[in-house]
Design a protein that fits this description.
Radius of gyration: 25 Å
Strand content: under 5%
Number of domains: 2
């Protein structure tokens, strides 16, 4: 009898494993971390972006584990993520907080995923190259509730009634961290190393809790890189696991983000300069933004006077966006501001022209090199010191 006067449960009903209270917390963290590792290493870097190859045994372990702990299939996750990159921050993006609002993505991320997973067009267009063996067709696909039900039974058998709580945390882990935080906060708040053509951000520089996915802006800048960290102070635990697997022959890295290099003393642009700038275009735009930040801020302060209403926050954002991403009504307000400042107008125009260099697919390489050299010459003659200094940096990309 227990202290409530009720009969004690038989020993087997308390689970096969008996742990102290903190032991159950550790077990829960380990189990959910394996799930996170499966998402970032197997689904994201291996399946969606082909940044690395995994040993078949490792790939199938992750495939089975994710079926048990999330009910997700490789084809659906891969297809939805590829569509996210192809349609990022547009009406067709499955989970853009810029379009759907941050609140909706945070609170309904799992529902957005399930809705898109039913879209056959998405699966067929973006789900190519994913597993299509007997296990996928007869066990994993179409049986999402089967996997999580098996996991529930396993947790209760191993840990008894506490296993139900462990299972509940497992079921919530990916909807909250991946579907909510990464897809939501990772496109709304944080810092940016690169001026990618979307709103992606790095949430924190230490990618541990969510397997490295916290470094989301880095990923959008170099989507096919197996390593998500880029700066010396950033840490990607998913990359650590990949390197350990590579050391024992369980993984093979195919692609990494190229490192930015500079050739000091270079005074003219050539084909190598152009190629380096196109390769590192998001780094180029980020450096451009940082170089003219103080100048723009000072100019905006100067303009903020009676009789000229300036929304400083909006203008700062508009100055670093391509024109096509600025809504029509806001574009008209930006034009009004630019008419009152030669400095801001020059900075904005030069930024748009720089971004256009790698979008002119019809121009020959000789024409692009000539346009790049002309851009640098005009930047140095603009009378704006940060533009002049940035131009000299630009010539040094190698």
């Amino acid at each position: 009898m227990n202290f409530n006067g009720l009969p004690d449960l038989p020993s087997w009903a308390n689970g096969l494993i008996d742990l102290p209270w903190w032991g159950y917390i550790v077990v829960t963290l380990v189990l959910t971390h394996i799930t996170i590792a499966g998402v970032t290493i197997y689904l994201h870097r291996h399946s969606a972006h082909r940044a690395l190859d995994l040993h078949p045994a490792v790939a199938h372990f992750f495939r089975m584990w994710l079926w048990l702990t999330t009910g997700m299939t490789t084809k659906a996750w891969t297809a939805i993520h590829r569509k996210h990159h192809a349609k990022c921050e547009t009406e067709d993006d499955p989970h853009s907080p810029q379009v759907l609002t941050l609140k909706k993505v945070l609170l309904e991320g799992a529902e957005l995923y399930r809705k898109e997973a039913k879209n056959r067009e998405t699966l067929e267009k973006y789900g190519h190259g994913t597993p299509d063996d007997w296990m996928e067709r007869h066990v994993y696909t179409g049986s999402d509730k089967g996997g999580v039900s098996v996991m529930l039974v396993i947790d209760i058998l191993l840990f008894g009634p506490v296993g139900l709580a462990i299972w509940a945390v497992q079921m919530l882990w990916i909807p909250v961290t991946a579907a909510g935080i990464i897809n939501g906060v990772g496109h709304y708040f944080g810092y940016r190393n690169f001026e990618a053509e979307d709103a992606s951000t790095n949430i924190v520089p230490w990618g541990i809790l969510i397997g490295g996915e916290e470094l989301h802006n880095n990923h959008h800048a170099y989507a096919s890189s197996a390593r998500l960290s880029n700066k010396w102070y950033e840490f990607d635990i998913g990359w650590l696991y990949i390197r350990l697997m590579e050391m024992v022959g369980l993984a093979s890295v195919k692609k990494l983000a190229p490192q930015v290099k500079f050739e000091t003393g270079k005074v003219t642009c050539d084909l190598r300069t152009l190629q380096a700038i196109i390769t590192h275009r998001y780094d180029v735009l980020a450096r451009f933004t940082r170089s003219i930040k103080a100048t723009c801020a000072e100019e905006l302060r100067r303009m903020h006077r009676p009789g000229l209403a300036v929304d400083l926050q909006s203008v700062r954002r508009w100055l670093h966006l391509e024109a096509k991403y600025i809504p029509a009504q806001e574009k008209a307000r930006l034009d009004a501001v630019l008419k009152n400042s030669k400095v801001l107008d020059t900075v904005y125009t030069m930024r748009q022209e720089l971004a256009a260099l790698w979008q002119r697919s019809t121009a020959s390489t000789e024409q692009l090199v000539s346009q790049l050299e002309d851009w640098c010459h005009r930047a140095e003659k603009s009378g704006i010191a940060p533009l002049r200094d940035f131009s000299r940096t630009l010539r040094g990309y190698a």
